Amino acid sequence: MSTLFTKIIEGQIPCHKVAEDSNHLAFLDIMPLKKGHVLVIPKREVDNIFDLSPSELAALNVFAQVIAKAMEKAIACKKIGIVVIGLEVPHAHIHLIPIENVSDIDFSKKKMNPSSEELIATALLISSHL
Question: Of 71, 74, 105, 120, which is least packed with CB atoms within 10 Å of its CB?
Fold first, then answer.
């Protein structure tokens, strides 16, 4: 059965795409912790990130690094935090979150609910720095 992320990859569910290559996709979290919260995923459906081959895991991290560098230019923050939890969607993914302090990566906090227009503008802003 396809995951939510596989349906996004296949175009069955829309997303606010930041970047894509043949093996990876980066898109905005629609319920972000902070403005600019990006999800980076492999296109191959794998539940556990550590079930990716070493070369796939390395390539995913290199792709995430490119996105994080663009995010640093686009979103005012001290750093881009990186988190892998893997419980929300059974498809390996990395959260890239603009942060000012460690509490900005507290997933028990209430999430933001940005409008579609805000998400479109944020995705374009980050993409413009790639």
Answer: 120
